[in-house]
Amino acid sequence: MEAFVSKLLMVHKASCLDAFNLTASYADHDSLRHIHAWMRHAIRGNPKVIEVRTMCFYGYDLLYQLPHLGSSNPTGRRLTSLKLTGVSLDNSFTELFHSAAWPHLEDVVLVQCQLAFPRIESERLKILGFQYCTTPAAEVFVIRAPRLASLSMSLHSNSCEKGVVLDVGSPLVRASVSLKRDEFSARNEAMLLGSLSNVTSLEIRDFQAMAILDTELFDKLPVFNNLRNLALNPFSVDDTISDEHNSFKALGRFLQKTPNMETLTLEKFWVAPTVELVEIPALQNLRTLILDTCDLDDNFGLLQYYLLNSPNLEKLIVQYCKVVHFFSLA
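Structure tokens predicted for F-box/LRR-repeat protein:
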């Protein structure tokens, strides 16, 4: 197969490639040599889209190292989208975001990559994905992209011990942030959440309740005036605290910061009958409510509250929810 792919690329006579997509697994340096040759040949084809997914059978011990693609390379002028999975990236990779050789690069997605640099800065970047990458060189990872429109991040403590600092400006339309539970401090999580206050559509997963319930952190959290669409799962809590009470309380407090929200998606929420709902504000602008895999076996308290406190609600979607007993909403 390696010989076939190499021959196929060599006999390809077109002046350029529209896209190059490579998925490969390997176990030794010999296989890496072939992948490296394929990648270099593809780069010479000046593609618009490059997508590389590699998997080493020995984990991070033998990661594929992306060839240097800095300003000295004249063939990258068509590249608009770069998506890498399981690749090791050295400091030269950051040249892509500044070099005149890559003027159209606007879409970058990094998944389970090993990064040797502590920051990404770009005046051109519009789409960024940062999924479970490791950054041994940085306690804090910095992302500065003032034109960014879409951001997707999944983080654990190996990504950056003290979290991510975002400077993304105001054009941000969509953001999705998923955290590894209990691996970051409440303060770092609150700072990360606050840096997304200009976003229009936000999805957050596994943030801890204390990032919201801590009064000092909550008071510093800005109002999300631009937010129209919010999706989230229950806030994580300390095992010694009542999960349902504090998770739902954190939800209520956070909703106080989203006065213009029109669509709310709750995933895997449930409310014990003993939990009071008084801290959740009236949602005057809410038009669509989606309950996804929620537990409604609580005398429908979760559903009942939103029906009674969302006067302009137009659409209700209940999907894959648990209902054991039926109780009247009257």
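The helical segments are 2-11, 29-44, 186-194, 210-213, 215-220, 243-255, 301-308.
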